[in-house]
Amino acid sequence: MIAHLERPAGPAPGGRRLLADLGPGYLANGLIGFIFSATGPVAIILAVGTRGGLTQAELASWVFGVFFINGLLTLAMSWRYRMPLGFAWTIPGTVLVGPALQHLSFAEVVGAFYVTSAVVLLMGLSGWVKRFMQALPMPIVMGMVAGVFLRFGLDLVRALHSDVGIAGPMVIAFLLLSAVPALGRRLPPVIGALLAGALAIAVLGRIDAAALGSFALARPLVQAPVWSVAAMVELVVPLAITVLVVQNGQGVAVLKAAGHEPPVNTIAAVCGIGAALSAAVGAVSTCLTGPTNALLTSSGERHRHYIGALCFGTFGVLFGLMAPTFTGLMLAAPAEFIMVLGGLAMLRVLQGAFLASFGGKFSLGALISLLVTVADISLLNIGAAFWGLVAGFAVSWLMEKGDFVAAARG
């Protein structure tokens, strides 16, 4: 089964190569990817865990697991394959856990995490994941990706409407640095927006001091699983689908759109291993993240994108070790700051997703995939991104048969 795992195309970069590939733009992409992961997604964990009755120690352990373990995986894989392979945790999977915690114990949920990790690992080792991905037309996948990422662009507009004092300077700084390439080369536009936003927050006194808290190191708790048939029936298949199809599907599509050839089977196997390690400390399953990898590939030369991933992984490991401190720091900033930062960083990525979706074949299927994903409906505890792929493929199969024939002929 190991024969299905893709090998790296070349040797891992040495110290000199790493130094030569360093650049402020790539470090900026890694920092923005980290900031994105350390804000809204963390808030989802805290909300789900709090509603599910988890203790503060269990929540801290969860946050430690998703950052520290996935940060290490990101560092190892991005360095060895010399491409941006940013691992995080499944956000739709986190949302799935919320209702389950209302009638299942946390130990039963952890047991389902372990079983999910085994399923994901076996799918990667068997090679089935790559064959499935190859069968899906890329425009339909990118339609789903565009639907997922569209909210970042909409959040940018909403932030300008709700808090122009914070959002306005950030957008102006971004546009000026983007419009004048000589300035943009010295200061990446997204970093300029970040600095302008930080200055606006300081001038307006918009820091939430109560959220800052004090310095504290994470204390992970090893969680003992309980093997429950009810938990497995409810969670394992939806969690595996969100990891392998929804999240990894996004990540792979984003990387391919940026010119990379991600090792699909190896990624799935690594997600299985990461999910098992994460489950040990009560954290939800590992996945190849879509939005963060989009940020890591949003600018710069393709062969240097991995530097941003190494930066992202390093910040993730540090965040995991100091999760209570960093979480308070990030949540102290206004929500509009994060909304604008994510929206600006995603503009080019979103543009590319639309071009890949509607620039050629399977355009109707891509449109249906986009619409169903944006509708954000959930069926059978499975999120809209999966159903967007299903609906888009079905419509194309019925109404765009010629495109399938042309694709098969190459």
Unreliable spans: none
The structural domain count equals 1
Number of helices: 21
Major sheet, described briefly? 2 strands, antiparallel
Number of strands: 2
Euclidean distance between termini CA atoms: 29 Å
How big is the Rg?
Answer: 21 Å
Q: Tell me, what's the shape? A: globular
- Estimate percent helicity: over 70%
What order do the strands of the largest sheet run in, or round the barrel if closed?
1-2
Secondary-structure-based class equals mainly alpha
**Average residue-wise pLDDT:** 87
Strand content: under 5%
Sequence of secondary-structure elements:
HHHHEHHHHHHHHHHEHHHHHHH
Helix and strand topology:
Blueprint: H1 15-21, H2 24-37, H3 40-51, H4 56-81, E1 87-89, H5 91-100, H6 106-126, H7 128-135, H8 138-162, H9 164-179, H10 181-186, H11 189-204, H12 209-212, H13 229-257, H14 264-280, E2 286-288, H15 290-296, H16 305-321, H17 323-331, H18 335-358, H19 363-375, H20 384-399, H21 401-409
Antiparallel strand pairs: 1-2
Write structural notes for this entry.
- The structure is a single chain.
- With 410 residues, this protein is mainly α.
- It has one domain (2-346).
- The chain is 75% helix and 1% strand.
- The protein contains 21 helices and two strands.
- It has a two-stranded antiparallel sheet with strand order 1-2.
- The longest helix has 29 residues, at 229-257.
- The model has no long low-confidence stretch (mean pLDDT 87).
